[in-house]
Every structure is written in C-alpha cells, then in structure tokens.
Design goal:
about 130 residues; five-stranded mixed β-sheet
C-alpha cells in the first residue's frame, strides 16, 4: 500500500456516470472477456476509486499487461486531486474505457500505480476466444 494514495479498480461490463447525483455505477464485474479471434481488440471499462492521504496534485498510471508481462496499454492521469466534499474522505472516482490488442489467450492484468511504480490496485481478466 502506498502512504499517499490508496485505491481500488474494477473492470466492469459497463460503467456510467450520473451527473446530477455525482455518482458512478458499475454493472457486471468482469473476470473473463470473450474475443472472436486472434488478434483482436479488447475493450474494457474500468472504474477507479482513489483515496488521497496527503493534499496535493498527484499522477496515477493505469497499465494493462499481457500474459507474457508485456505492456499493451498505458495512460498517465495527471493532476489527480481531491474532488470530494470536505466532510468526506479525500479522493476521486473516475472511469475510463480502454482498447488494446489481444494476441493470445491468457490473464491480462490491469494495474494502477503511482509515479514511483508503487502498486495501488490490480484487476486480472482472463481473455479467450473460447467459451469457458
């Protein structure tokens, strides 16, 4: 666990935002994704919840790794800062839809880390062209 940031991430079938209530909702947590063939493009929706233990702007990085450990997608979220009411635990929730090329079957890891490569959260997803 990181001393400045703590968090969760979930890969879901669908993530959506309610602008009126300022809430995010997730539907059907994904542990498996079926693709038609190889290579194929996988599409994942990711919900992120961060708690910020110390004030200030931070960067967090989301990356997806193939079963062989190769990075297949990455993005830096810059200037992540508290977006919550002062009475609430400081932090931010957000979601992102990602696309990456799947070359073969296996467990693809979606990870979130800070600028020092400290792991904040991880969610594995098994991707296959076969039914399981």
């Amino acid at each position: 666990m990181n001393a400045v940031l703590s968090g969760q991430l979930v890969v879901a079938e669908r993530v959506w935002s309610n602008e009126q209530t300022k809430e995010l909702s997730i539907e059907n947590i994904r542990n498996y994704l079926k693709v038609n063939t190889y290579p194929s493009v996988a599409v994942l929706e990711i919900w992120v919840k961060l708690w910020i233990m110390e004030p200030g702007d931070r960067s967090v990085y989301l990356k997806t790794f193939s079963p062989q450990g190769k990075s297949v997608w990455e993005y830096e979220f810059k200037k992540v800062k508290n977006m919550r009411n002062e009475k609430m635990p400081p932090g931010i929730d957000f979601y992102v839809k990602i696309r990456f090329v799947v070359q073969d079957e296996g467990v693809y890891r979606v990870v979130m880390h800070d600028r020092h490569s400290n792991l904040i959260a991880e969610h594995p997803v098994f991707i296959s062209a076969d039914e399981i």
